[in-house]
Please model this.
Amino acid sequence: MKTFIKNLSLSCMLAAALSLAQSCTDQLELTPVSSITAAGFWVNEENANGALNGMYVRFRDEASNNLFFWGEARSETLSYGLQASEGRERYFENSLDPNFAGPNWLRLYTIIHDANLIIKYVPGITFTNQANKNNMLAQAYSMRAYVYFVMAKTWGGVPLVTEPTEGYDAETTFKQRASLEEVFNLIKADLDMALGLFPNNNLGQSKALWSKPAAQMLKGEVYLWTGKKTGGGQQDLTTALSALNEAASASGLALLPDFDGIFRYNRKGNAEILFAVRFLDLEGGANYNSTLYIRDDEIPAGINPATKALIGQGGGLNRMAPSAIVRNAFADKDQRKNATFVSINIPNTSGGTSYYGSAVMKYRGFVDPSGRRFIDDVIIYRYADLLLQIAEAKNALGQDPSQEINQVRQRAYGTSFPEFRFVNGTQATNDEAILQERLLELSFEGKRWWDLIRFDKAFTKVPSLQNRANQRHLELWPISLGTISLNSKIAQNPGYGN
Model:
């Protein structure tokens, strides 16, 4: 199969062509499709490769902003920036409602539709190599599982669409929300299919495609969630730990000594990555860090030279910024601090300094003659995340999580590690340490909100949710009025009105 990198530009054009073969699935209001188009397209391996790349293009569209909003924006990591927030404060203030509900699920269904097309048509296509065919199907099943997992964590039960829609039928077009159990049953079944189809345990060169280790990590995260949140208990937690250990056994995985290097444009597909969404020059727009950095004319004249050197050339718009909770969480000896955010203080009239603003450093891109380019890959899964999930699963099963926590800390603190060595404690204190380590390691990577929900700590850790523990409906997002208007069978999440 041609690599994703070589085919991505072509796939952008193919994606437009394929839109003829995909209906308005994103609205769950599906229009007829020409049978000639479908029959004429799915005829050979090259066509199938184009369809696969189109699926990843649409996934990139969601990863550019929406995965971050769903996965982190409602947590304690964000606050007001220097620019107008344009409503983004509704996330970290947790004041969403059906009128302002954040990104909806509509475009996620286009990705599912792409996966459904591959799952339906690829088995009937002759490939030069059966392993390539199986690998393509495995990627489609993995992608469908991941997207439904995102939706289940965000909204709970959602309509299940498992066949491409190639004609219009009101009975099948307007679907009710399936139960959460039904959604997770599909997710787990898809992962079993994917893991049975991947021809080997290789990560792949680019790390921009689903692979068996990445799917194993997804399986581990899914079973961690159901073990903790939906009554799966010890059985699901045991399955999670087994899957995570399988992912960790992949050849070539390692923690990069240089934490900042994980995110750099010229280090794409590095040894720490299991799976990332590929952004390349001249393909697609900027990633979400363009709204978390700082524009040149916002950098104050009195800035400390060392801080100015960290920022370099400005860019983007500082519409949200690292919160005081994050800024105060890092020890100065932690190499992750300067690689995660920069805090700007300026002289005040008392002879000291006052806080001015801050910016996220992780996906800050690079500078060329056109300015700062925010096109670093958006990481879905990496090795440090995997280690901390293993620690979480171990602790939930009453095992010692020290080894994995200390691997992460050793990279973070270097020669100062002995001061920060983790020592096994009670299950509750271990959980607190793991959750805090995930804050330090993974801030601004689109993980924190879902971490807080999984650990049942959102109403403790998020300032805007404190003293609101009786409003448990806020763990789920509201469904937008626009989404409901497209399908009268969609019921609103409890607590958000009719």
The two ends are 48 Å apart (CA to CA). The first strand starts at residue 78 and ends at 80.
